TrEMBL record, chain A:
Family: Belongs to the complex I 51 kDa subunit family.
Annotated NADH-ubiquinone oxidoreductase 51kDa subunit iron-sulphur binding domain residues: 347-392
Cofactor(s), names only, from the UniProt record: FMN; [4Fe-4S] cluster
Organism: Halopseudomonas formosensis
PANTHER family documented for this protein: NADH-QUINONE OXIDOREDUCTASE SUBUNIT F
Upper classification of the organism: Bacteria, Pseudomonadati, Pseudomonadota, Gammaproteobacteria, Pseudomonadales
Protein name: NADH-quinone oxidoreductase subunit F
TrEMBL record, chain B:
Co-factor: note: Binds 1 [2Fe-2S] cluster.
Name the UniProt record assigns to this protein: NADH-quinone oxidoreductase subunit E
Cofactor: [2Fe-2S] cluster
Family according to the record: Belongs to the complex I 24 kDa subunit family.
Subunit structure: Composed of 13 different subunits. Subunits NuoCD, E, F, and G constitute the peripheral sector of the complex.
Keyword Ion transport in annotation: no
NCBIfam families reported in the protein's UniProt record: nuoE_fam, PRK07539.1-2
Protein's organism: Halopseudomonas formosensis
Classification of source organism: Bacteria, Pseudomonadati, Pseudomonadota, Gammaproteobacteria, Pseudomonadales
SUPFAM superfamilies referenced in this protein's UniProt entry, alphabetically: Thioredoxin-like (SSF52833)
Reaction catalysis annotation: a quinone + NADH + 5 H(+)(in) = a quinol + NAD(+) + 4 H(+)(out)
UniProtKB/TrEMBL annotation, chain C:
Pfam family, one: NADH-G_4Fe-4S_3
Protein name, entry field: NADH-quinone oxidoreductase
Catalytic reaction annotation: a quinone + NADH + 5 H(+)(in) = a quinol + NAD(+) + 4 H(+)(out)
Cofactor: [2Fe-2S] cluster; [4Fe-4S] cluster
Domain 2Fe-2S ferredoxin-type span(s) in chain numbering: 1-83
GO biological process terms, semicolon-separated: ATP synthesis coupled electron transport
Family statement drawn from the similarity comment of this UniProt entry: Belongs to the complex I 75 kDa subunit family.
Keywords: 2Fe-2S, 4Fe-4S, Iron, Iron-sulfur, Metal-binding, NAD, Quinone, Translocase, Ubiquinone
Job description of the protein: NDH-1 shuttles electrons from NADH, via FMN and iron-sulfur (Fe-S) centers, to quinones in the respiratory chain. Couples the redox reaction to proton translocation (for every two electrons transferred, four hydrogen ions are translocated across the cytoplasmic membrane), and thus conserves the redox energy in a proton gradient.
Enzyme superclass (EC): translocase
Subunit structure: Composed of 13 different subunits. Subunits NuoCD, E, F, and G constitute the peripheral sector of the complex.
Length: 450, 164, 909
């Protein structure tokens, strides 16, 4: 007995080819779109155009001009990343990696695409590989996504049988092999350089940049890592052109195109939808997610995954694109928002979140490896009313010194961003956990266990 | 005590060996198959027994210490015996808000185990897991390869019945 | 060169460095953990953070890890910046979360980099109030103790052990704050270089287990600059003493030789110094009568008076002691103490490295060669430090690839990622498998004669005017072609060979290859391994003496009655020559006087045994395989703790004996006089007086301290003997004081450094403070002088030997070496004994099958008229027609290239 993830609202909302380049092909019944149906719905037309009618450099410049930004959380312009690949043709062994590790709490968009539209990802990778002159691609998929793995593998087999993967694809002379590589747990595998180490069969410690994967990636070769959703944007950009793509977002959006956005938590209608970048968070929250469930009030919200900061209800006016969210002090992240209701104690929530981040630290750099567990223990003490007077100071130090640029990778900064914002907006909840009897730095009888 | 010499040295089955060798072809370097090789062994035996690192290292041409380093890094490789079925309860923040504690309570009541433990009859092992990407249906859990959403303390008992 | 600005001051630095290296080289203190001069940067610990500004107008700046930031021209940084200081203090605070704070019971305490950095960053108050995670420790064998709770996860150990030293059995396990560094399961660390972990680890996870039972702090030991006597590589060591015992050996940095690393024989093989059965007083063996010095000298003089005396020197004794023996017996009657074949081979090697066509690479410089041919040596067993250096030659390829791609050589992870395990070519031709095979482009096995033929063929392939090898099989010819091609393609090819197989043809082959490379205009080098710590010195000393100066010649002369008396210096003749010959000579001599520091089988047969100093109680000069004369200095004065102990340097005994015989007072009262006399008599050794400063050397008018200034307990040290603290022993032989009084810092340049210490730097990382640039060379110059860089001359082509063809029913016996066991002195150390193999006879798999024996079966065989019974060790790589015997292990007779075994069969029980 098993239930299929229907991703209800995403499948049921009104969609069109013009306005929903990623999701218009979704079936209402939530079943995967296999090759025949995908091709009936204009599938692989963009690939045909890219492979037969476009030079690799043209694809790169098209994507660059489209302004597509990475959808994996960091929001780096995709075309720019692509153009970092070496111009030197003699470096002809190159790889395209699809980052399908999706393990960040409250992130569940790539799963939809891979389970229900596997060919869209394959087509996106095929076109991207052609642009990057990659001869081989890997989809680095988290191990728990068993349905996605099955569907992708079936779709790859279909594509291979149809001559859409393998040698001399569509008679273009371009060869491309694609494999699904499944992980074995660990959020850090989603960090693109840790992902490369993991793919190589090593411990998933990140790598120092520079050198960037574009010059030294998998097996020392030029490599491009893109998120599932990023790659799923590519067919429509190539198929419909830059002008069309840049018209998709709301006029005042600094970013182009559409984005899978969602809301979860105690909202009436949790789900994800493909929406134009630049829509207001309020629209997303009220019109799509339906606002809070009865009896629950919105206390705060997070715009895009565990690694983004908390915002107050008044910040719902912010528009959902990188610059819009930056204006209110945090990052767009994955664009999948979380509503925190009034029943939730922020100390407990942060304790839960830091447990996640501490557990998922790769253990390579000191601040993250040893600092995060300290935050967990401190939060547990505060949660249990056993905090000491200096605990907030200690947490503030951790927030400061585990921030961007100070740790080896972006994991720890992602861990402290929500903590910093929670303390900023809900300081009294943290202070409430301080036991005035707890002496400064002195071990207490209630020595808190790990 | 008997004078019997222990002979429970780990040996890969032919099927495991063949599967690992097949997997090696997907990569430029055999080392890349190390995680997959561990999963192959785990698939067959439920967990990765002592000695597997040597056997896998030998096929891949890498030191056993590297294989063990990988085996112990990743959370879904089990270096201890587990039950016939693995319950993975998402403990990330959305499920936390959605009430994953009550799901755990339901499992505690039904099976009498805490996260990290295995039932006495070896039927279930309960483990926490990172966000399962099922946040619209929090709280979520997986039993073996099946994912369930909107689980409650009451419904979880019924779910477990399908896994003998 | 680049100009950088640090806290407002301008400096010139090497722009190829990272900022951490640059700052440390300037003498600025930046704390660090994961970076190591030999291991490069990985940016893991975050301890080395500094503030970097985009230009002189930038006031905000941002934190960067100095180890991961290139020292580019016009960099602006601050070490003193408040945020940077606070961040670095936080890093220590985080590292201390799980650290047990067990300094009082931790054996790292007092030379701990973590302690130093903790003090340096000013973290001095614990705020963390929760429980600590704990780990289970492992038994890693007799050398290394393991205490994982102290780990700060800098990853240095695995990076050293795996990436640098090529070990496979140490790894990192687990994740997040549960990372664990150890073996997959308990067991002996397999690497022959495991001991360096004790210095690479910045805290007390890996400590010296041999030191553990008789432990004391670094500051409570006396040290001296010393030279390892374990092989001919000449590694520099700092032995530490307390209560008249060597307690441990630390690496002593010599930027031209061993730099940061030793092998495990050198580090853990010191136990022979502390043996209770050492000769400690002059002893008349027959009567078991021990006596004082004057009585002993009178006895000896009485025994030797009017006798015809023959002296046998030793390649494991200092030049000074050998020279004193030569003075005693006269140049004509002084013999080398080396076996005939060995002496001839060492002489040939000396000729080759002194005047041959190619220069000899220093061990450090070996690392800078990019193609290597190892001909006939099992380096890990015969000169282990060279094997470690060769790994770096091979790994040089990675640096080369990285640099071509614009990646700095210190950016270790990136270097490895781009290189994907690419190695410079190393070819290994040996009789059996070696522990370097894993880096070999190709490895072949053959009997010594066939190895030599391969070598000759390589020379011919490099330069066709070198003689060709008749009847060489096609595969060998092709291999020779590939080796020649790789050597010719290299920027700096290196040839490594040596005397360990006793084969003269191998040395001749090496000479031909050297000449061929020279003829082709290559910037090539050689390195030739000789058997013992002073084999080369002795060969130089005897270079101009006519006649056969071998042990056999000496023993024959005694047996023939040409001498009455035999004086043997630090030499166990039973390890050199056939035991029957030794027995006969010792029986024929009317007087046998042995001067040695060990109770050897030869010493057992002496009439009079005089207790010599080991390296720990005496000074002297050794010449290493590269012709580097290096001085070792006395670590402690044994008589201070026990006036009954009458150990004296060999040269002191022999000189006193000579003068007693002559009825004159002694002339030589200090080492410098002997060294100078030796240099005067032997022009080839003239350089040895420059090998170290003489005893008059002072810094700011002070002697150099042997002990750190915190040395404690001296007043009580002899309280069991007398409550009056005696005057410290005076040292006429060296510039060092047996005391913590004297100069001990790094401020003033000096080459001879007993222990590495500088204010704030108690750990071995203090070497930074003595170097011209971190990891480079000592500011005062690396110790030692090279004696053999003579005029380079062409050699005449040598001719290849005939192919190996054992007579039916015979097997050539080849020596197999063991780092643990084959060297006489270290084999007396208890921890080494735990790692020694049992004696065995190695034979090829096919031979074993033919004989119908399996591994471990007891075999009987004849070696001349000697019968041996040994368990079989079956080798899948040993060539047919040879058997291997482990050199130096109990019951294994001395071997020569002509040793032949017959009648191998399974022993009947
Ligand atoms: C700790 C951590 C986890 C990450 N996990 C993911 C992930 O699961 N999926 C993803 O696409 N990007 C993830 N990223 C971002 C990637 O490092 C990288 O920026 C992204 O894959 C690039 O693809 P894009 O440019 O197409 O967004 C993660 C980053 C960090 C620091
Ligand atoms: S911040 Fe450091 S320890 Fe944390 S995941 Fe990144 S590299 Fe690993
Ligand atoms: S020394 Fe620079 S990060 Fe460790």
């Amino acid at each position: 007995m098993r239930t299929l993830s229907s991703f209800g609202p995403a499948n049921r909302s009104a969609r069109s080819e013009e306005t929903h380049p990623m999701t218009w092909r979704l079936r209402d019944d939530g079943q995967p779109v296999w090759l025949e149906e995908y091709q009936q719905k204009n599938g692989y037309a963009a690939a045909r155009k890219a492979l037969l009618d476009m030079a690799a450099a043209d694809i790169v410049s098209t994507v660059k001009d489209s302004g597509l930004k990475g959808r994996g959380g960091a929001g780096f312009p995709t075309g720019v990343k692509w153009s970092l690949m070496p111009a030197d043709e003699s470096q002809n062994i190159r790889y395209l990696l699809c980052n399908a590790d999706e393990m960040e709490p409250n992130t569940w968009k790539d799963r939809l695409l891979m389970e229900q539209l596997p060919h869209l990802l394959i087509e996106g990778m095929l076109i991207s590989a052609r642009a990057l002159k990659a001869y081989r691609g890997y989809i680095f998929l988290r191990g728990e996504y068993v349905d996605a793995a099955r569907n992708l593998n079936r779709a790859i087999a279909e594509a291979r049988a149809a001559g859409l993967l393998g040698g001399n694809i569509l008679g273009s002379g371009f060869d491309f092999e694609l494999f699904v590589h499944t992980g074995a747990g660990r959020y850090i595998c989603g960090e693109e350089t840790a992902l490369i180490n993991s793919l190589e069969g090593r411990r998933a410690n990140p790598r120092a940049k520079p050198p960037f994967p574009a010059s030294v990636g998998v097996w020392g070769k030029p490599t491009c890592v893109n998120n599932v959703e990023t790659l799923c944007n590519v067919p429509a950009i190539v198929g419909n052109g830059v002008e069309w793509y840049t018209s998709l977002a709301r006029p005042d959006s600094g970013d182009h195109g559409t984005k899978l956005m969602g809301f979860s938590g105690k909202v009436k209608n949790p789900g994800i939808w493909e929406l134009p970048l630049g829509i207001s968070a309020r629209e997303l929250f009220e019109d799509y997610a339906g606002g809070m469930r009865d009896g629950y009030a919105l206390k705060c919200w997070q715009p895009g995954g565990a690694g983004t900061g908390f915002l107050l209800p008044e910040h719902l006016e912010a528009s959902m694109y990188s610059g819009g969210i930056a204006k209110v002090g945090t990052r767009m992240g994955t664009g999948l928002a979380l509503a925190v209701d009034h029943t939730v104690n922020m100390v407990s929530l942060l304790r839960n979140m830091e447990e996640f981040f501490a557990r998922e630290s790769c253990g390579w750099c000191t601040p993250c490896r040893d600092g995060l567990p300290w935050s967990v223990k401190t939060l547990r003490a505060l949660e249990g009313g056993r905090g000491s007077a200096e605990d907030l100071e200690i947490l503030a130090r951790l927030v400061e010194f585990l921030g961007p640029g100070k740790t080896f990778c972006a994991h720890a900064p992602g861990a402290v961003e929500p903590l910093g914002s929670a303390i900023k907006y809900f300081r009294e909840e943290f202070e409430a956990g301080i036991d005035p009897a707890a002496g400064r730095g002195r071990p207490k009888a209630e020595f808190v266990q790990a | 005590m008997s004078n019997l010499i222990k002979t429970d040295r780990f040996v890969l089955s032919d099927a495991e060996r063949a599967a690992i060798e097949e997997e090696m072809h997907h990569y430029e370097d055999p080392r890349a198959a190390s995680i997959e090789a561990l999963k192959i062994v785990q698939q067959a035996r439920g967990w990765v027994p002592d000695g597997a690192a040597d056997a896998i290292g030998e096929i891949l041409g890498i030191p056993a210490s590297d294989v063990e380093g990988v085996a112990t890094f990743y959370s879904q490789i089990f270096r201890q015996p587990v039950g016939r079925h693995i319950i993975r309860v998402c403990d990330s923040m959305t499920c936390f808000i959605g009430g994953h504690e009550s799901v755990l309570d339901g499992i505690r009541t039904t099976l009498g185990i805490e996260p990290g433990q295995t039932t006495a009859d070896n039927r279930f092992t309960l483990l926490p897991v990172c966000c399962l990407g099922n946040c619209d249906k929090a709280p979520a859990l997986m039993i073996d390869d099946d994912t369930f959403g909107n689980v409650t303390a009451d419904s979880v008992a019924a779910l477990l019945e399908d896994y003998p | 060169m680049a100009t950088i600005h640090v806290d407002g001051k301008q400096y010139e630095v090497d722009g190829a460095d990272n900022l951490l290296q640059a700052c440390l080289s300037l003498g600025l203190d930046v704390p660090y953990f994961c970076w190591h001069p030999a291991l490069g940067s990985v940016g893991a610990c975050r301890q080395c953070a500094v503030k970097q500004y985009s230009d002189e107008n930038d006031t905000r700046g941002r934190l960067v890890m100095s180890c991961m930031t290139p020292a580019t021209d016009n960099s602006w940084i601050s070490i003193d910046d408040e945020e940077a200081k606070a961040f670095r203090a936080s890093v220590i605070e985080w590292l201390m979360i799980n650290h047990p704070h067990d300094c009082p019971v931790c054996e790292e305490g007092g030379h701990c980099h973590l302690q130093d950095m903790t003090v340096m960053t000013g973290h001095n108050q614990r705020r963390y109030r929760f429980s600590k995670r704990t780990h289970v420790n492992q038994d890693l064998g007799p050398f290394i103790a393991h205490e994982m709770n102290r780990c700060i996860a800098c990853y240095r150990c695995v990076r050293y052990y795996k990436d640098y030293a090529g070990g496979t059995d140490l790894g990192v396990f687990g994740a997040h704050d549960e990372v664990y560094f150890g073996r997959v399961e308990d067991g002996v660390l397999e690497s022959e270089f495991s001991g360096n972990l004790t210095e690479v680890c910045p805290t007390g996870v890996f400590t010296d287990k041999t030191h553990s039972e008789r432990y004391n702090r670094k500051w409570d030991m006396q040290f001296a600059p010393s030279i390892c006597h374990g092989c001919s590589a000449g590694c520099n060591i700092s032995p530490g003493e307390r209560y008249g015992e060597i307690r441990r050996i630390e690496n002593r940095f010599n930027g031209s030789v061993n730099h940061y690393f030793l092998c495990d024989r050198g580090r853990f093989g010191y136990g022979y110094v502390n043996r209770k059965d050492r000769p400690q007083r002059p002893l008349l063996q027959r009567s078991r009568l021990s006596m004082g010095i004057d009585a002993a000298l009178d006895q000896a003089a009485g025994l030797l008076n009017r006798q015809r005396i023959l002296g046998i020197g030793s390649p494991r004794a200092s030049l000074e002691s050998n020279f004193a023996l030569r003075e005693l017996v006269g140049a004509e009657d002084f013999y080398s103490g080396m076996a005939r074949e060995e002496l001839a081979n060492v002489n040939a090697i000396r000729e080759l490295i002194q005047h041959g066509p190619l220069p000899t690479a220093s061990i450090r410089d070996i690392e800078n060669h990019d193609a290597v041919f190892v001909l006939g040596e099992d380096l890990t067993q015969t000169a282990a430090r060279i094997a470690l250096a060769l790994r770096q030659s091979a790994r040089g390829k990675a640096t080369e690839i990285a640099e071509a791609a614009g990646i700095q050589s210190w950016h270790q992870a990136a270097v490895q990622n781009i290189a994907q395990g690419a190695l410079n070519p190393v070819f290994i031709a040996s009789v059996d498998s070696t522990r370097l095979d894993d880096i070999a482009a190709e490895a072949v096995r053959a009997a010594p004669a066939d190895l030599a033929r391969l070598g000759f063929a390589v020379a011919h392939a490099i330069d066709p005017s070198a003689p060709a090898v008749d009847g060489l099989e096609a595969d060998a010819r092709e291999l020779a072609g590939r080796i020649a091609e790789a050597l010719l393609a290299a920027r700096r090819p290196l040839l490594v060979s040596g005397a360990s197989l006793g084969s003269r043809s191998l040395i001749d082959a090496a000479a031909n290859i050297a000449q061929a490379l020279k003829n082709r205009g290559k910037d090539a080098s050689i390195s030739m391994v000789v058997p013992e710590a002073n084999s080369m010195g002795l060969s130089i000393m005897l270079a101009d003496e006519p006649g056969d100066r071998s042990v056999e010649a000496a023993l024959d002369a005694v047996v023939e009655g040409r001498y009455d008396a035999l004086v043997i210096l630090e030499n166990d003749l039973y390890r050199r020559a056939d035991s029957q010959l030794v027995d006969a000579a010792l029986a024929a001599a009317k007087v046998v006087i042995v001067v040695d520091h060990q109770q050897t089988p030869t010493a057992d047969k002496a009439h009079l045994l005089l207790p010599a100093s080991s390296f720990a109680e005496g000074d002297g000069t050794l010449v290493s395989l590269e012709g580097r004369a290096q001085r070792f200095f006395q670590v402690f004065e044994p008589g201070y703790y026990n006036p009954d102990v009458l150990i004296r340097e060999g040269w002191r005994w022999l000189h006193a004996l000579r003068h007693t015989l002559l009825g004159k007072p002694v002339d030589w009262t200090s080492l410098d006089q002997v060294t100078a006399a030796c240099a005067a008599v032997h022009p080839r050794l003239a350089g040895i007086t420059e090998a170290a400063p003489d005893a008059s050397f002072r810094i700011k008018g002070q002697k150099l301290a042997r002990a750190p200034h915190r040395y404690s307990g001296r007043t009580a040290m002899r309280a069991n003997i007398s409550v009056h603290e005696p005057r410290q022993p005076q040292d006429p032989d060296s510039p060092f004081a047996f005391s913590m009084e004297g100069y001990s810092g790094a401020g003033q340049d000096r080459q001879q450094i007993p222990f590495a210490w500088s204010p704030g730097w108690n750990s071995p990382q203090a070497w930074n403070k003595f170097q011209d640039e971190v990891g480079g060379h000592l500011r005062a110059g690396d110790p030692g002088v090279r004696l053999l860089d003579g005029a380079r001359m062409d050699v005449d082509w040598a001719q290849p030997p005939a192919a190996f063809a054992p007579a039916a029913g015979t097997w050539q016996v080849v020596p197999l070496y063991h780092l643990f066991g084959s060297e006489e002195n270290s084999a007396r150390a208890e921890p080494i004994q735990q790692r020694m193999p049992q004696p065995y006879v190695a034979l090829a798999e096919a031979e074993a099958q033919r004989l119908g024996v399996t591994d471990g079966a007891m075999l009987a065989l004849s070696l001349g008229d000697r019968q041996l019974q040994l368990p079989a060790r079956i080798s899948s790589e040993l060539p047919l027609g040879v058997i291997g015997l482990p050199v130096g292990l109990p019951g294994i007779p001395p071997l020569t290239a002509a040793s032949v075994a017959t009648g191998i069969k399974e022993a009947t029980r």
